[in-house]
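The authors assume throughout that readers already know how a fold can be written as discrete tokens. The format is easy to grasp once an entry is in front of the reader. For illustration, here is how one protein appears when written out as sequence plus structure tokens:
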Amino acid sequence: MSPPGAPGRRWPAGWFSAAMWLLGGLLLAFIVLPVIRLAATSPPGAIRQAAATPAIRDATLLSLQAAAITAAIATVFGVPLAWLLARGTFRGRGLLQALVDLPLVVPHTVAGIALLFLLGRTGWVGAPAARLGISFYGSQPGIIAAMLFVSAPFAVNSARVAFEGIDPRLEQAARSLGATPWHAFRRITLPLGLRGVLTGAVLVYARSISEFGAVVIIAYYPATAPVQIYNLFLQSGLTQSAAAAVVLLIVSLSTFLVFRTLASGRLLARINRAYT
């Protein structure tokens, strides 16, 4: 029998396959059609003009930079937590997993207000940080904090699923041969779960670059791309904001596809060769 996805494999015929295609196609159309309509609304000249506007260009670059930093932070701190959840059998593991997923159910404006109480000028963290010259309110650190809160679950859960798919006996065999826990993780667990780790980083990046609700509460200025597009919508109406939205769509989709391709292909192969 040919494995799933093997060349020459045919889709099952009949009403069941047709129903699956119909239902899946309707959902896909719901996702794609608004994007196509948005792109068709703005002529190329308006898109070029929007891309050349300093405010839009600066906001887009800020979003790209903050999202990349957020992805790096989420990966560095999320991978250890993912390993604990994948390998641990401690009491309260379910509660810990629920806390990791908490940002997925918290409205993002609520998340922004909560972060403001923590990181604002009088917050538990914000006040001591202000004495050290670090401000989260209306600054790039605040933007990154907001992005990190809403996107961190993607890094943790993607890595956790990858680690859970690795046979723990491989790590035990390495330990029996004298490897330290760190060495077993670095040489066995991390290389085998690297695809999940990189996928989580890409998802964090994608989620961060599109964040609006939490960011607009804690750091309205400097404006990220979603905030700038919202400002244009309020000030100039739908037409001008649509052109800026297309610019952000092109940039974010392009970078996402590049990172996704690297994470699933050439970058992963290079890293694997470095381990061997």
